[in-house]
Design goal:
The protein contains 13 helices and 17 strands. By secondary structure, it is α/β, with parallel strands linked by helices.
């Protein structure tokens, strides 16, 4: 089927929820994607931080094949060996004394976190505590409750009425001002993925953690995008030197196979029937995630991941300095990075021209170009991607 026929099929039968670019990718290798005409694209987005070990990873493909030919799914009514092993591995690598619940996405993981917070608030305190504080420019998902937890009014149009109990703080320093006698938790991203790749100050985060512990309010960290070594550590929480009560993660955990996870030190908060998932944590997704963790933990242990982060960051910083008339600042953490662009019009032109030069870059917030390459990207792929970006800038 040719690309135009495929495009028309999509337009006719798929709900129009995405402003698609109708490129037709047919295969991938490492940080490269290939379209149906054989042209290669350097992927600096990795499926929005999902393809953490690159495209066409042979080890991941073999793990998926081996599991799929035996068992894909049995349900959570029975013991699932790779699920238990994955939970143990996440706890060991994080160093946090927690238990894990597996879901299918970041939004589902955050739903689980919200339920943990509400049950905690019901059981701990002289009165029912139900309010959850989130931050401006946050993003926590597209279900009804995670949409309301997302403190961006533009996301709330059409879909109300929403669940009550969400309070928005302007920034970290404003959070203590929003705490009341019915506050049970604070949910935040340490680097706001949709809010301009904005890392919060380490000391401010640590100070907030201290205040919350004093007030018996849960600290819940949304690591859907920052987790699974994207920050340079398994979790950005480790890089910030904090111990959250709840961590959520998803995107890069299984390298493209849908999965989400909630980790909490409230190890007995849920009892059977409090929460559940039909597909969450099945044989296929957890086997894939185990292989991804094996690959990435080795990259971290050998120092290769840190070298890659340093190299990519330096390339971005050099680009910003050399083209300061377009890029005002380089920001980010690990391989979750951004270039602030002077205005939104220039950002749109930059992203479109980058695509024409066959390098995929994403948008974040109003004026930030977002870079989320695979964590196994090679130096040659990085160099080629930046060479193409230089060609793009020459056309700005």
């Amino acid at each position: 089927m040719n690309q135009e026929d495929l495009k028309q099929m999509d337009l006719d039968f798929v709900l129009h929820t995405y402003a698609r670019n109708y490129i037709h990718f047919v295969r991938g290798e490492g940080a490269r994607l290939y379209d149906d005409k054989g042209k290669d694209y350097i992927d600096f987005g990795s499926g929005i931080a999902v393809c953490s070990v690159g495209h066409g990873n042979k080890r991941l493909a073999e793990a998926i094949y081996h599991q799929a030919k035996n068992l894909i799914h049995t349900s959570n009514l029975y013991l699932i060996e790779p699920q238990a092993r994955l939970a143990k591995r996440l706890v060991e690598l994080s160093g946090y004394d927690m238990r894990v619940f597996f879901a299918n996405s970041g939004a589902e993981a955050n739903e689980g976190a919200l339920k943990i917070a509400r049950k905690f608030g019901e059981e701990n305190g002289e009165q029912k505590r139900y309010q959850i504080i989130t931050l401006d420019s946050s993003f926590h998902g597209r279900t009804i409750s995670t949409l309301k937890a997302t403190a961006q009014s533009k996301m709330h149009q059409y879909f109300g009425p929403f669940p009550d109990g969400f309070v928005y703080a302007k920034d970290l320093s404003d959070v203590p001002n929003k705490i009341s006698n019915v506050t049970c938790a604070v949910l935040l991203e340490l680097v706001q993925g949709e809010g301009g790749i904005t890392p919060f100050d380490k000391k401010e985060v640590q100070n907030l953690e201290r205040i919350l512990k004093e007030k018996n309010v849960l600290l819940m960290v949304d690591e859907v995008q920052t987790g699974i070594y994207r920050s340079g550590k398994l979790f950005a929480s480790q890089a910030y030197g904090i111990t959250p009560d709840v961590i959520t993660t998803a995107k890069g955990l299984a390298g493209g196979v849908p999965i989400g996870a909630v980790m909490t030190n409230l190890k007995d908060i849920f009892v059977p029937s409090d929460h559940g998932s039909t597909f969450g944590g099945n044989f296929l997704s957890t086997s894939a995630a185990l292989e991804v963790l094996e690959i990435l933990s080795n990259e971290k242990q050998t120092g290769e991941l840190d070298k890659r982060i340093a190299y990519f960051t330096q390339k971005l910083q050099d680009l910003q300095k050399h083209y300061a008339e377009f890029f005002t600042q380089e920001v980010g953490l690990g391989l979750m990075r951004g270039l602030r662009v002077r205005d939104s019009e220039t950002l749109t032109k930059f992203l479109n021209l980058a695509f024409e030069e066959r390098v995929l870059v994403l948008k974040s917030g109003k004026n930030t170009a977002r870079f989320l390459p695979s964590l196994t990207i090679t130096q040659e792929e990085i160099d080629e991607g930046f060479r193409r970006i230089e060609s793009c800038i020459a056309r700005l």
